UniProtKB/TrEMBL annotation:
Residues 168-284 form the 3-hydroxyisobutyrate dehydrogenase-like NAD-binding domain. One of its GO terms (biological process) is organic acid catabolic process. This is 6-phosphogluconate dehydrogenase. InterPro entries: 3-OH-isobutyrate_DH-rel_CS, 6-PGluconate_DH-like_C_sf, 6PGD_dom2, 6PGDH_NADP-bd, HIBADH-like_NADP-bd, HIBADH-related, HIBADH-related_NP60_sf, NAD(P)-bd_dom_sf.
Amino acid sequence: MAEKTRIGVVGLGSMGAAMAGRLLDQGWPVAVWNRSPAAEEPLLAKGAVRAATPAEAAANGIVLSMVADDAALKSVTTGDAGILSGLPQGGVHVSMSTVSPAIAADLAAAHQAAGVAYLGSPVFGRPPVAGSGQLRIAVSGPAAAKDRVRPVLETLGQAHDFGEAPEAANVVKIGGNFMIAAAIEAMAETFTLLEKHGVSARQAHELYSSSIFAAPVYKLYGGAIVDRAFSPPGFRMPLGLKDVGLAMAAGEKAGVPLPFAAVLRERFIGSIARGRGDLDWSAIALDAAEAAGLKAE
């Protein structure tokens, strides 16, 4: 069996760390880099090696990045000792963050000019899903690059190919997160309505999530809402606000009205202003309850 390539992982928040851990568990050599080195320690203990810079993490030809936003992705990619300066010719940068289609297109062009490839590869799934190799990954970019990294993506989950336009996968991801946020808001309002009428939201959730809404989003987030299980967060409130903003910007650019996105934006802003920024984004349900005169906590 051919020796596996060392994979670089840049960005070790909860998702990046879970993906790096999964690769290590499945026998991949891994080099890790994080802006705050303390996040590297658990992975070093599992056998990863420390990369001094994002460029060093990319030196073996395949690097995954998982960072918070456009600015962070640009910094680790094109900044001093960034990924782009370290990838060898023919290398592949697998960008797994939720970022704007615009930054994806810009970085793809920069990679192409440097003789390397950029794949938009954002993921659906929380850290435990990443750790068990069950992510759903939207992928777009050059076909040859997809072929090269296919074994890596298959270790992390199931890839869905959205063609060669590098920004396409990010549009898919932004749309998916917008749908999740909309489902959270709908459940928050519905459960509040039920409680105000003296009906058990928990019992109704059991009905909904086992019949007409028997899907992971409704089961997971509906359960979090009725249990008030918002900490530790799987996806922090400011990230939800960011993603709704990405949807609104993408809609504006394409001439697509997204009126409900504006409702969600106001809900996230209000929740953060009330000191809930460190909670899971499903904690917008607390604001729905408060607006109806219910005790939120």
